[in-house]
Amino acid sequence: MLVLSRKKTEAITLYTSDGPITVRVVRGEQVRLGIEAPRHVRICREEIEPHNENTEPAPIAA
Known about the structure:
3 strands, Translational regulator CsrA, CsrA_sf, bacterial flagellum biogenesis, RNA-binding, repressor
């Protein structure tokens, strides 16, 4: 596992095949991420729904 540290004025951008993920803001113990991805990319919050690659993504409301 790679662990990176940034100061408040610095950023980290991870470039994936579906788009970049950028650390936008760090406030205390919270981190805000910016995710640019096509609609077909599934983004899960594990505390709400455990990651399971075999499940179909929920439809996106228009």
